[in-house]
Amino acid sequence: MMAATAAVRVRAGTRRAPALCRMPWLPLMLVAAAAASEQQVPLVLWSSDRGLWAPAADTHEGHITSDMQLSTYLDPALELGPRNVLLFLQDKLSIEDFTAYGGVFGNKQDSAFSNLENALDLAPSSLVLPAVDWYAISTLTTYLQEKLGASPLHVDLATLRELKLNASIPALLLIRLPYTASSGLMAPKEVLTGNDEVIGQVLSTLKSEDIPYTAGLTAVRPSRVARDVAMVTGGLGRQLLQRTVAPPAISAPVSYNDTAPRILFWAQNFSVAYGEHWEDLTSRTFGVQDLNLTGSSWNDSIARLALTYDSLFGTMVTFKFTLANRFYPVSARHWFTLENLEIHSNGSVAYFNASQVTGPSIYSFHCEHVSSENEDGNLLVPDTQPSLWQMTFRDFQIQAFNVTGEQFSYASDCAGFFSPGIWMGLLTSLFMLFIFTYGLHMILSLKTMDRFDDHKGPTIALTQIV
């Protein structure tokens, strides 16, 4: 909806700052609307000054801006921006209202927020926070009063026209948008359109007087509440046959560190067989603090991860993953390959070729099944056939180069582009195309007679028509 607005979503923190401790609010226009089921509201800011907010970094859905995080956005603006701050306070608003009634699909003439959208498009600085913690909004007025050193002044449009604002003297103006108390008698779009007209008139007044300002729109509570049973603590009545299902616990990956994390390895299931006896090593490998990684090493070209188990099949067994990092001029980038996987036990070594486990070095490698069994893709090929050892990894992921922190990079997946269904469709289409081409060729090859019998003349003799 708001083309020139940078959307920012920040995960909610656990600390609370009294009166929004530090919130920079100079050149910003703030539109906050309640948008979640537990008292979160969106917040939009814009200002007549530029350069108050840096472009948002990585953001994703579901983040909630806390009071401490909100203060980091507002503090610089209040210290460097205009001294006149306007806060438009609406009774109810949610981020879904902008989707439902705004011009997000190109219907600008049908938008209920035309003045607000225009203000954000023209504002040198703007910021949109789709979900802000309700506590931060509830203390916003007190925070602004402390930062500006000015008491809030409740004004309407007529009062604003009589005021003489000074750019050097701080002023905090609270504008309660109309049509909220009796909004139950009006359609939501009519309410929002009326409020938008008030915003447009106020901004036109400030523009005519050439007064720099920071403005904000927020709401007391959300207009739409997502009913999520898992988030509601009571009041919805009994839910028949409702059972709370705990999410499956995910263990931390194996991490080899020297001066920093170097190798990461994880699998949802890690099973090994010797002869006909299978052992599940998942619980003994992932999330274990004292896992034996003796023998592991790392440099820019070769990485080795060694996992040692003291009592496996009655003896000590070590699994060694050897990964190589090479530069290929054709692709002009480094690629890593799992050269082999070794199993050391009782002085003997079993080798598995795993060269199909490969990818760009800046990525990790992920595959749903990495196994020495044919039915699971056979990515691990034993050097000797038949082999007493069998290995199976489910949801396998590994990274040994360009590791940052304890999290995997983007994964290069082993899944091929052509699935069996795609192959079946292509072959069927090609077969039908062949039939169509052959039939068309036969039709075009038909030849008609160019001589006909005349009953008044001599009988013609027809030879073979070619």
From TrEMBL:
Residues making up the signal peptide according to the UniProt record: 1-35
Any GO BP: regulation of cellular pH
Gene Ontology MF: a single term: ATPase activator activity
Domain V-type proton ATPase subunit S1/VOA1 transmembrane per the UniProt entry, residue ranges: 416-454
Keyword annotations from UniProtKB, A to Z: Membrane, Signal, Transmembrane, Transmembrane helix
UniProt xrefs under InterPro entries: Ac45_acc_su, VAS1/VOA1_TM, VAS1_LD
Keyword Transmembrane on entry: yes
Superkingdom per UniProt: Eukaryota
One GO cellular component term: bounding membrane of organelle
Localisation per UniProt entry: Membrane
Membrane topology reported for the UniProt record: Single-pass membrane protein
Primary residence: membrane
Keyword Transmembrane helix attached: yes
Annotated ranges, domain V-type proton ATPase subunit S1 luminal: 261-401
Membrane-spanning segments: 422-446
Family: Belongs to the vacuolar ATPase subunit S1 family.
Designated name of the protein: ATPase H+ transporting accessory protein 1
Upper classification of the organism: Eukaryota, Metazoa, Chordata, Craniata, Vertebrata
